[in-house]
Amino acid sequence: MKGSDRAVFRAEAHHLSPAVHVGQHGISPSLIASLDDALRTHELVKVKLGKGADLKAKDAAGQLAAATTSEVIQVIGHTATFYRENPDLRKTKGDLPPWRR
Prior knowledge:
Layout: H1 3-13, E1 20-22, H2 29-42, E2 44-49, H3 57-68, E3 71-76, E4 79-83
Parallel strand pairs: 1-2
Antiparallel strand pairs: 2-4, 3-4
């Protein structure tokens, strides 16, 4: 992904609320499944990492991206943003992107 594409997604993600929260149990199979579902339906997803997690935010983001075959757009504080394109979503010109619906 080019830096200009990443910048566009960062701007789009600014107004999103976190859809997935990493809690005290850390990165579990159910959390990965939840993130995978969110990426399938929305493509651009914010994840809030709990302050009690043992992992650093960048390490956790890397693990989640590898587990869901997505790309890390940015990591700021305890919040990470991921993107994975879904070719099955219907996209027509003039429609809102899936993360705004």
